[in-house]
Amino acid sequence: MNRYQEEAAKLKKALLKDPFPYWMGAILLGLLNIVTVIIFKSGLGVTTTFSHWAAWILKALGGHPENWVFYQSESASKALAAGFMRDGGTMQNLGIIFGAMLATLLASQFRVKKIKNSKQIVAAALGGIMMGVGARLSYGCNIGALFSGMASMSLHGWVFMFAMFIGAFFGSKLLVKYFI
Predict the structure, then answer these.
(1) Are the C-beta atoms of residues 86 and 180 closer than 8 Å to each other?
(2) Residue 62, Ramachandran bin (φ over 0: left; ψ between -120 and 50: alpha; else beta)
(3) How many beta carbons lie within 10 A of that of residue 7, not counting itself?
(4) Fewest CB atoms within 10 Å of the CB: 40, 79, 83, 134?
(5) Rounded to whole angstroms, how far apart are CA atoms 47 and 140?
(6) CA of 48: how far to CAs of 22, 37, 55, 111, in Å?
(7) 53 neighbors 90 (Cβ within 8 angstroms)
(8) What is the C-alpha separation between 142 and 149, in angstroms, rounded?
(9) CB atoms within 10 A of CB 145
């Protein structure tokens, strides 16, 4: 193997196999947030778009989400009217989903794991429901409420961080006691 091939192998390992340092992730997330604000005129967010997806599906099935209080606001009604493929949040979420899948495949980390027992399914379902409801009640998820909120120096981002640490502490205690 010549020097060029060795260097290429090292670079491939560094980019695709080895974890990035935390500081690099922080810098990349900060830059991504800046680009997102420039392009979409709002910070990063995930869960509001999931609400829009459900509303678009309901509308396609004959429902009328435009009558809901949530869709009376200017930004939400614009998102509902814009549709799936013209929504910036949809593009962000699809980018997250396909980017994570691509990164996993490139790093050869994709695995289909056997579910251990029904307790694991119930815990995952309840955890997902609680996170979804909590995200909608708290002005977004850890991306929209925490990351974008703190980046814009909004009080809600800092309150979210404090509450998230408390919730994570007690949640980890419950997880260890009942599920691990």
Answers:
(1) no
(2) left
(3) 10
(4) 83
(5) 6
(6) 27, 16, 11, 29
(7) yes
(8) 9
(9) 25
Question: What span, in angstroms and rounded, lies between the C-alpha atoms of 134 and 164?
Answer: 10
User: Which sequence spans correspond to the domains of the chain?
Assistant: 115-179
Reported pTM: 0.73
Q: What is the pLDDT along the chain (180 residues), one digit of tens a residue?
A: 688 888 888 888 877 777 878 888 889 888 988 888 888 888 888 888 888 999 999 999 999 999 999 899 998 898 899 888 888 889 889 998 998 898 888 877 888 888 888 888 888 898 889 888 888 887 778 888 888 888 888 898 888 899 889 989 998 998 888 777
Mention every residue, 6+ apart, whose C-beta is less than 8 A from residue 167: none
At 87, list the tokens: 């929504």
CA separation for the pair 154, 42 (Å, rounded): 13
Using CA atoms, how far apart are residues 104 and 66, in angstroms rounded to an integer? 38
Q: Are 147 and 44 in contact (CB under 8 A)?
A: yes
